[in-house]
Amino acid sequence: MIGSKTFIPGFEEQLVGLKAGDEKTIEVSFPEDYQVPHLAGKAVTFDIVVKEVAAPGEVAIDDEFAKTLGLEGLDKLKEIVRGQIESQFGAMTRQKVKRQLLDALDEHYSFDLPEKLVENEFEGVWRQVLADMERSGKTFEDENTTEEAAKADYRKIAERRVRLGLVLSEVGEKNGIEVTDEEVQRALYDRVRQFPGQEQQVFEFYRSNPQALASLRAPIYEEKVVDYILELAKVTDKTVTKEELMKEDEEEAAA
């Protein structure tokens, strides 16, 4: 779906204007944080053939439509959609609370950081920045900055990531927080399911690559430490509208 931004950044935009029967070579780069480590940050080409071009039509949302989706009726469809929306808003709320927590930790802790860790983190961030700029065709001048100023800003981001990573690691270690093999296994199966038709190759890649497997364990550990801290923190619930919930994210994306 053009505009859905569900595929690699830059891919959909290069499809605009094509018609059935057209052939094209699309050049893109996988994001630095792509879920398959051996593809992360890599520049690649896709040779494509356009089979068909279509657009959404008018659909009557009723029992018959629900049955075409394999459901018994409209009520079941509404139940599923409601659950998906609640899950989506719940995830957005979680991210806001987590961001507030990390901001508080970043403000509270200040200590000398291992230069090697900072440098490695910065190099990863900077590669992504350069790839994004090349893909969009923009320059530092277009962003009203210079390369030196941008590097300084992104180095601060790298320092923040390293600092928070060390703080969360210390909290987790001192309080006996661990990630079980079963949790990693579930994460692995979830990842494998994201690549239909390539399940076996992806599974073998992670099983034979300790670093890749560690990339699955790390976010689970982080979330468990965040949960532990939130249990000790005073969290105030606030009811907001959908627009208010999304406002900050939209403003940050624009910035």
Word description of this protein:
This protein has 255 residues and is mainly α. It has three domains: 12-49, no CATH class; 60-108; 109-254, Trigger factor, domain 2 (Orthogonal Bundle), CATH 1.10.3120.10. It is 58% helix and 5% strand. The chain is built from eight helices and two strands; from the N terminus they run ββαααααααα. The protein has helices at 63-68, 74-108, 115-136, 147-174, 181-192, 199-207, 210-232, 242-254; strands at 23-29, 43-49. Strands 1-2 form a two-stranded antiparallel sheet. Helix 3 (115-136) packs across helix 4 (147-174). The relative contact order is 0.08. The model has no long low-confidence stretch (mean pLDDT 89).
Describe the secondary structure blueprint for this structure:
Blueprint: E1 23-29, E2 43-49, H1 63-68, H2 74-108, H3 115-136, H4 147-174, H5 181-192, H6 199-207, H7 210-232, H8 242-254
Antiparallel strand pairs: 1-2
Helix pairs in contact: 3-4, 4-7, 5-6, 5-7
Strand content: 5-15%
As laid out across the biggest beta sheet, the strand order is 1-2
CATH architecture label of the largest domain: Orthogonal Bundle
Q: Would you tell me which CATH topology of the largest domain applies? A: Trigger factor, domain 2
List segments where confidence is low: pLDDT < 50 over at least 5 consecutive residues.
none
How far apart are the first and last residues' alpha carbons, in Å? 26 Å
Q: How many domains make up the coordinates?
A: 3
- The helix content is 55-70%
CATH class of the largest domain: Mainly Alpha
- CATH 4th-level superfamily of the largest domain: Trigger factor, C-terminal domain
Overall 3D form: globular
Number of strands: 2
Rg (CA only): 22 Å
Counted by DSSP, the helix tally is: 8
Structural class label: mainly alpha
Spell the H/E element sequence: EEHHHHHHHH
State the oligomer: single chain
Largest sheet: 2 strands, antiparallel
Average pLDDT rating: 89
